[in-house]
Amino acid sequence: MKTRQGFVSNSSSSSFVCDVSGEGYEGWDGDYGDIRQACCANGHSFSSEYMLAEGSQLSTADKRSYMLEHGDNDRDTVAFKAATEGQIEQWWLDEWEEDYEDDLDYFDLSEAKCPICQFQKACDRDIMAYLLKHTATSREEMLTNLRREFSSYRDFLASIGK
Ligand SMILES: [Zn+2]
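Above are the sequence and the zinc ion SMILES. Below is the predicted complex in C-alpha cell form.
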C-alpha cells in the first residue's frame, strides 16, 4: 500500500455542522481548535460556545464534593472539608471551574446544557418539522406548491427576500 509522504495515517479529518449557527467546522480527530463539538442527549450537535453553563448552577455542596473527589493530597482534603462556603465558591472560580468544564463529557450533555432543548436557540431541522406539522403539509405537498407558485428558483429566492 502506498502512503503519502508526511501524511499521518492514523489521523483522520472530521467535521460537523453546528445546529445553532449553521456554521461548519473542520478539524483533525475531533480537534476544532478553540471550540469543541458538544452533543446533547437528544442528538443536537453544536459548538461548545453555545453550551449553557451549568457549573454556576452547581450547589456549593456539589462543588465541595467535586473538589474533594479531585483534590491532589490529604492537605487539600482537610482544607476543602474545613472551608467556608465563601471560600469554596472563591476557589471554584479561581481554579476548579475550568477543570470541571474540561471533565465534562461533551458528547452526552444533559438537556439542561443544550440551548436548543432549552428553547433558547432553534435549529433549522426543528423549525422545518414544526412548520410542516403546523401547516399540515408534507415535504411532497410543499414541493408541489413551490413548483406551482414559482417558475424559477430565482423567483422563489426573491419571494423569501434572499
Ligand atoms: Zn438538545
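The chain has a mean pLDDT of 86.
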